[in-house]
Amino acid sequence: MTETAGSGVDDDHGWTERLAWAYGLIAPAPAERAAALDRLASAREEVESARRRVYKAWLPPPRLRCMARDRAAAQTAFDEAASRCLPEALWSRLPEALWSRRASGGINTWVGLPFALLFLEWEARYPQEWTRHAKEWGTKQSLIRMLATANHDDQVRAKLVDLVDLAVQRPYRCKDREYVRVARAVDGDELRGRLHRAHRSGNSWAQLHAGYVLWLLDHPEVPNTRHVWRTWIAGTRTC
């Protein structure tokens, strides 16, 4: 499976070759995560250097032919650097049609999907490290919304169930409310079993969040808005 992205052809091997190091960001061992964070810092420096080169290329030089050539070279260098960094690779290598949700087959056919899931898992498991090194709430929101479909394979579906479970276990973070979309898309025995366990746990955040998500799953016609959340909270406190 291949797709055109940016200036060339992308495939699974290309993504893995460029970003295999990023799996260290979700490793249980602190030393392995630290090494991946160092690699991310180096990749980010390369991106910023390439970005400055793009800006410089747009300054008016004496000859238009040189201008066009330098701009093309600078953009190519930036695209290459961005493809080796997170979350930049997710912006630069995601087809425009997927951002607008018009692509045939949706995000589940995109070869960069494993790294989109990795980016969300990193935020879910190590939120402070993610916030310090790659805070992009808009990217988080966009990826969650694009992933909220029911046509994923079993492996991706299991990962999405994990992400919902992780989100309900913790104090609310920006854009966590979007995970309700995913919960509704992958609703089933596995997800509900986890939510019920969280609801019965001694974790007050998990009890609250899991209870709300379960209620929304039982009422698919109800929108997940702040007003609905506040009304539900008020109802649980008066029971």
What's the short story on this structure?
With 239 residues, the protein is mainly α. Helices cover 66% and strands 3% of the residues.
Overview features:
two-stranded antiparallel ribbon; 239 residues; 2 strands; disordered N terminus
Structure write-up:
The protein is elongated and about 65 Å long. The N and C termini lie far apart (54 Å). The chain contains 13 helices and two strands; from the N terminus they run ββααααααααααααα. It has 239 residues and is mainly alpha-helical. It has helices at residues 12-19, 30-57, 64-82, 88-92, 96-99, 113-125, 127-134, 137-147, 154-168, 179-185, 189-200, 204-218, 226-238; strands at residues 2-5, 8-11. Strand 1 and strand 2 form a beta hairpin. Helix 2 packs antiparallel against helix 3 (64-82), helix 6 (113-125) runs parallel beside helix 9 (154-168) and helix 9 (154-168) packs across helix 10. It has a two-stranded antiparallel ribbon with strand order 1-2. It has two domains: 1-114, no CATH class; 148-239, no CATH class.
User: What is the H/E order?
Assistant: EEHHHHHHHHHHHHH
Which percent range fits the helix content?
A: 55-70%
Label the structural class. mainly alpha
Strand % is under 5%
* Rg estimate, integer Å: 21 Å
